[in-house]
Specification:
Amino acid/polyamine transporter I; membrane; 472 residues; 18 helices; transmembrane helix; mainly alpha
């Protein structure tokens, strides 16, 4: 029988059984290609189009090593996500894994954390989408949307209509079905990879080694400082695990998709950084909001290419909005199905096979946030929330190995618990580098979540209801 206290644990078999309950059953419709594209779609966004300039300004040409170091920091957590997602193919990602290993109260905390992380992330990315759309319209057609309909009131506008448009458009796509969403994302991933390949071809055709000296002007301190910034360009592979319940063959496909998407993005990131430094110096890129376009303009003399890169950025960000918003809906869905939030929100639309009511509700709330609120430093909450999830997922692997040693594991993290502990160490190290204001906001959000859990979630928890009824 399940424990009914604050640290009640959902049995893995019970979690998997819940996925087949009538009215809350999601459609199994995506394979390894679509799942890998989801990972690439979530990872490659503004990061590679912007962060390379900031990183090179800190580390110089050694920013190449920073990209590698950031990937290494992610890979330990990626391995843990691969093990848990293939072993527990249930929506909810880190929330669900924590429920199965550390108990309900910890699961609530991480679920509440992820709601903030994904919601703020989608709103912030949508605002960035509007800015990049304006950059594309300006570079390609010489026009731009007026500030009144392109910025929030605090930034001098009335409403950010482009941000509203992209959020609502993605909302409708997600309501239509996971198959349609996955197909659209695959097309966008192909487009943005094609834009990066275009950049690489031009860069290596005009390549010079003159910008590689001195290679590491700030030494290893510069490399690690740049890696702490670049790390956040890799965030997104965890969103793949939110689609585990809709995977046709989760045991086989999820490990390939999570690890594969991280590997693909690492290769593109390293090659892009090498190519950019082959045509432009760190000084030419470090102060630019579009460092790749600056590299082509100042280094290769191809100012017309800025329009192509701006288009690539718009497509890249659209893909990120889609995958991250998808991830949030599935985490919220899992929490509703478990009774920690209203169960009626977990109702699956029988026509589309998606939690349509939940998706539309979240879409409207995020659109309002994106339209009216300048997010500023609150976006740093995305970083601390992600790293907090990484810590608990890595610990979850270690705990589940001890408590359920005989549980089927299609994929196993090698050298456990060493690699999961390294994942914890890297995440804590990067969290310690975040500003105090971010920690204060994070604690306030978690405190508000604990109040909601005490007033609603604890009483309505499905685990607790079944324990009272004498069910397992």
């Amino acid at each position: 029988m399940a424990r009914s206290g604050l640290f009640a644990i959902r049995d893995v078999g019970s979690l998997i059984h819940a996925t087949a309950e009538e009215g809350t059953e999601l459609k199994k419709a995506v394979g390894v290609t679509q799942l890998t594209a989801m990972g690439v779609g979530a990872i490659i966004g503004t990061g590679i189009f912007v962060v390379i300039g900031k990183g090179s300004g800190i580390a110089g040409p050694a920013v190449i090593l920073s990209f590698v170091l950031a990937a290494v920091a992610c890979v330990f957590s990626a391995l843990s996500y691969a093990e848990l997602s293939s072993s527990i193919p249930v929506s909810g990602s880190a929330y669900t894994y924590t429920y199965a290993t550390m108990g309900e109260i910890v699961a609530w905390i991480i679920g509440w954390d992820l709601i903030l992380e994904y919601g703020v992330s989608v709103a912030g990315i949508a605002i960035g989408w509007g800015g990049n759309l304006n950059a594309f319209l300006d570079s390609a057609f010489g026009v731009a949307l007026p500030d009144a309909i392109a910025k929030s009131p605090e930034d001098g506008g009335i409403v950010n209509l482009p941000a509203v448009f992209i959020v609502l458009a993605i909302t409708l796509l997600l309501v239509r079905g996971v198959t349609e969403s996955a197909r659209a994302n695959l097309v966008m991933v192909i487009v943005k990879l094609a834009v990066l390949i275009f950049f690489l071809v031009v860069a290596f055709a005009n390549f010079s080694t003159k910008n590689f000296h001195p290679f590491a002007p700030a030494g290893m301190d510069g490399v690690t400082a740049a890696a702490a910034i670049i790390f956040f360009a890799y965030i997104g592979f965890d969103a793949v695990s939110t689609g585990s319940e809709e995977a046709r063959n989760p045991a086989r496909d999820l490990p390939w998709a999570i690890i594969g998407s991280l590997a693909i993005c690492t290769v593109f990131y390293v090659l892009t950084s090498v190519g950019a430094l082959g045509i432009a110096s760190p000084d030419q890129m470090k102060d630019s909001d579009a460092p790749l376009a600056a590299a082509l303009d100042q280094g290769a003399g191809m100012s017309w290419a800025a329009g192509i890169l701006a288009l690539g950025a718009v497509v890249a960000i659209t893909s990120v909005v889609l995958v991250i918003f998808y991830g949030q809906t599935r985490i919220f869905f899992a929490m509703c199905r478990d009774g920690l939030l209203p169960r009626r929100m977990a109702k699956v639309n029988q026509r589309y096979g998606t939690p349509a009511r939940l998706t539309v509700t979240l879409g409207v709330l995020i659109a309002i946030l994106a339209a009216l609120v300048p997010l500023g430093t609150i976006v740093e909450l995305v970083n601390i929330g992600t790293l907090f999830a990484f810590v608990l997922v890595n610990i979850g692997v270690i705990v589940l190995r001890r408590t359920k040693p005989d549980m089927p594991r299609p994929y196993r993290v090698p050298w456990s618990p060493v690699l999961p502990l390294l994942g914890v160490a890297f995440a804590i190290y990067l969290m310690s580098d975040l500003p105090l204001d971010t920690w204060i906001r994070f604690v306030i959000w978690l405190a508000a979540g604990l109040i909601i859990y005490g007033l609603y979630g604890y009483k309505h928890s499905l685990v607790r209801q079944r324990a009272r009824d004498g069910q397992s």
